[in-house]
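Hello Y.,

Per our agreement to keep a running log of every chain we model this quarter, I'm adding this entry. I've kept the format consistent with earlier entries: sequence first, then predicted structure.
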Amino acid sequence: MRLRGMGPTLLLLFGCLYMPYHVKSQVLGCTAPRSELAALQRRSRWLFEKLLALGPPPWQRSDFDFSVVQEMTDIMSAYEKTSELVVVYEKASYTLADQDSPMPCLPGIISAELLQLLWIWKVERDAPRAASLFEQSQGHLVFLRTISWARVLQLGFGLVFAAGQTMCGLVSSPPESEDDVEHARRHHSSWPGSTTSSATVFKQYHVLTGFDYRQCVDRFVGFRSGDSPKACRGPNTGGRASRQSRRAPRRGALWPHRQFATLAARQPWACGAACRQASAFAHVAQAVLLQGGEPTGSLALGARRGSWALSEDQEQLLEVAQAELLLSEPTYWSANGVLQVQQSCSLARAFPVWLLLARLAGIRATELVREGAEHIQRELPLPTQPPPSRLAAFCDMIDTWPPTQRLTAQGALATYFLVKTVGGLLDTFGVRWWASAGALLGAVRNGGILPQDCDVDIAIWRPDAHQLVKPAFRAALAAAGVVSYHMPIYFQFRFCLAQVPAAADRRSVDGGLACYLPYVDGHLADVVPHEPDRWHYIHRTDLQYAHSFPLSGIFRRSSGGALSDARQRLPFGSYFEVWAPQAAAAELYLTTVYGGDWQRVLRGRRDNELLHNATEVGSKKAFYGSIARPTGPLRDVLAELTAFGSLEPGAEVSAALD
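Predicted structure for the entry above:
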């Protein structure tokens, strides 16, 4: 058997990606009566199961059922004895030109080809030759990745996925390139412009759930359980089910797979080939769990005729899963045929999507996972977790005088840029805000970001906060290179640089994500209930900030109860000014939070150890100028967006400012 001449086939299969759905159905062929197709597929499945049951050689002659020889001959005859996929292209081209000609049945031909390879492996006992032939026929895997999965299952050809998954057990892993590893190391250790790798999404998932998603995948398909929870358990697929198990099959939950799919969808730039394969698995796993039991109808090859079919939800999940894999398709184009097969099978062993598709067709999954496990390690080596962008380190550590700057030079510029951009957008959208906590101390006493700080805290007036969740505001942030994460438990919004890798954070409702330092934290503030002349933070878990402060430092209240602006502007570095309470109110705030000696004394953050006493200097400016540097120059993103007409907050903002 020869498996070559794949160039024309690739053109045909890639052409299917851009055809309408009804045209894809025609390209699939299989125009024979449904009863004939079903009978042929029952025989193909019988042959497939017989070949799998042979096990590893050597086996005795008495173990072999010689009827499989006749079955293989009949199946190849039914598909016109095709021995290489180039025949498919020639027939398909003729059919597309002449609509009166019958279309070859692509799923059936691919199944027959894969059964031939399985025959060489199991009957002829020549696994190296079978693997070599499979590695030279990347068109098989192109078909499995790109053809409409739902359509193939609805036609009853789920066996093609089972055979493809089984043959991948023979393929060796792609060789590691030292150049690629070194490039990734250099790429992830720099900023700006650094891009996260797929490992970031897996690491985030591990932080949020406490287990690796690959362990969850292993338990779902029945390979091994590891440390994954019972929620990762797949449907009960083993043996003959009892009456009770048929009524309530043992299966896991949807949330482990939804969590990973959500993380991947929220960070498409951070999702590489391994991540997309895992995301596709997560979607197909949900489709399997929605099945509710063993299929007993048209999707189960060899089963009695019934009414089982894919639901609308299952079809949508399969469509999204396949779209995930198609996004990774260009990564295979630059590789030669053998390397394409090795890369695709390496991913398929780690996240066996085709195995789950076979499960939807009623083919038991456990045997397929274990088949070939003795030939190759199944786990996929993922790239190591890239280090966080080197913008900050050991923040809030005060151990010397003068204090050591914790932000790198790039980190300081990035933080000042964040304050300027976020503050400017808040002003543009009519959201009133002012510096608070360490940012206010830095503005009043030092003139910028405190050397020991790596973040900036601001207070946001709660009646204006509805602007922060509107699409226009978030779009403006995105255009400026900033992302925001909402932490409603803490009544807090976190603003981060889009280039910095996201970090897992259980407090965030935005996919469980936040970011690494540096960032700007916006804490919601409002009028104290029953005390209309004072304000406080809505969230007050930290007792240091669990106080109320005079509202007169922020707003002036008219006789009619309306509030007018009373904030002042203070320099924050050399290129920007922040909003702050009036001088007397700011000093009262800092005295309440940091003690009465905040102007001249520097103490350690944790042990309150006295590090520097400037009283003897006799100047209130003893700390002024001791800030994180450099402070600029800073890019004026708001001016650029305004010039391009991209910053249009809307009429409701001007009304809010009146």
